[in-house]
Amino acid sequence: MVVQLITLFSGILIIRVLLTKEYAFYTIANSMLGTMSLLADSGISTGVMSQGGKVWDNKEKLGSVIVTGLFLRKRFAIFSLLVSLPILAYLLWHNGASWGQILLISGCLVPAFFAALSDSLLEIVPKLGQEIIPIQKNQLFTNILRLVMLVGSLFLLPFTFIALLTNGIPRFWGNIKLKRIAARRANFNQPKDTAVEKEILKIVFRGLPELIYYCLSGQITIWLLSLFSGSVSSIAQVGAVSRLAVIINFCTILFSSFVIPRFARLPANASLLLNRFLQIFVGLVFFAIIITCLVWVFSPALLFVLGKKYASANHILLLYFMGSSLGFISGMTFGIYASRGWILNPLVSIPYNLVVLGIGLLLFKVSTIDGVLLYNLYLAGMQLVLHLWYTLFKITELRKQQSLLVAAETAIQKK
């Protein structure tokens, strides 16, 4: 909670100090950073979690899994940069940024990107061992350092590239400490494992179509506004209200730290997996409802925190949180089944996603901020339907396999 409060305070500081146009550039750059990180990961962290869950109590084997994951992620990072930076440059130029601003913003975004390449993989080690407190202390240190750098620099130089640079530098320092924490349970002086690499790549290539869809849909609100709204104030408003999603971020961190690693470690017992999944899903829905109701009740106070520039964004705040809450349930449901190494067949996901995207573009007016937010809400709901169906399908399939195995064993015993 302390970490999230510091993050919230840092975000509000950036919102209040930066001019509306600068904050719109910051929002575009941050959305592209999320896309770059997704492309660089491409499901590698899911594969590492799946493979690491099998050897989580073996220091050498777990170290080999992490080393293999880091090797793959560095290779994917080059492709991510080549794809993402030109798109970022175009979006910034399209919304009025000069070429000097574009070069500074792109250059300062790269350190944060490279820091993100390793931290999510290194965190898997203590998460599998449920060493949560060291991770929290490291996150606390990183966020305090970022806040100090923001206060020390942003008031003097209130520009987008400064805000981005103060995000990347503390993460580099935090990653050094994170590697020391992970080294307690994983020996990194190991060669990459070819067999593990093949298993991770299987997950990567099978889940690549889904990932590409997430790259498009995950930041689609900002992208559509950047391309069609013709107003940097709309981009800034959505970026500002997104900073208040600290409650959802907090729930996501808790879930990723405690629930997904434990679900990954569960034995392949269909009844046990079904019971645990239903318990988790009910908890997710409960969280989402509570979050949305709190935002609805306290929206005037929340918007007061953002400042006068965003005081009229009441309905934008509510629509954004409704979409984010559904997206939270959908993303965590995906994380649950992906942690077991279950990857949805692209022959199912690609047609489904294309149809969903197409129908949404016909239903909603994406040239307006309300239309874009409703479109985002619709996409999150349709993704939740898909992920919920697939999780239950895989557990049912496992139950059938186990029933057949028991029947075969019984027949052998009778003979």
Q: How would you describe this protein?
A:
This protein has 16 helices and no strands. By secondary structure, the chain is mainly α. It has one domain. 45% of the residues are buried.
List keywords for this structure.
mainly alpha; 415 residues; 16 helices
Helix content: over 70%
Give the overall shape, derived from the CA principal axes: globular
The number of domains? 1
How many beta-strand runs?
0
Mean pLDDT equals 81
Secondary structural class: mainly alpha
List segments where confidence is low: pLDDT < 50 over at least 5 consecutive residues. Answer: none
Radius of gyration: 22 Å
**Residue fraction in strands:** under 5%
What is the string of helix and strand elements? HHHHHHHHHHHHHHHH
Question: Whole-Å distance between the termini?
Answer: 61 Å
Question: Number of helical segments?
Answer: 16
| Major sheet summary line | none
Sequence-ordered SSE layout with sheet pairings:
Layout (H helix, E strand, L loop, with lengths): L1 H16 L2 H22 L2 H9 L6 H36 L4 H24 L1 H5 L3 H23 L5 H23 L11 H25 L1 H10 L2 H11 L3 H20 L4 H37 L7 H25 L7 H18 L5 H46 L1
Helix pairs in contact: 1-7, 1-12, 2-4, 2-5, 2-8, 2-9, 2-11, 3-4, 3-9, 4-5, 4-9, 5-8, 7-8, 9-15, 10-11, 10-16, 11-14, 12-13, 12-14, 13-14, 13-16, 14-16, 15-16
Task: Please outline what is shown here.
This protein has one domain (2-408). It is 84% helix and 0% strand.
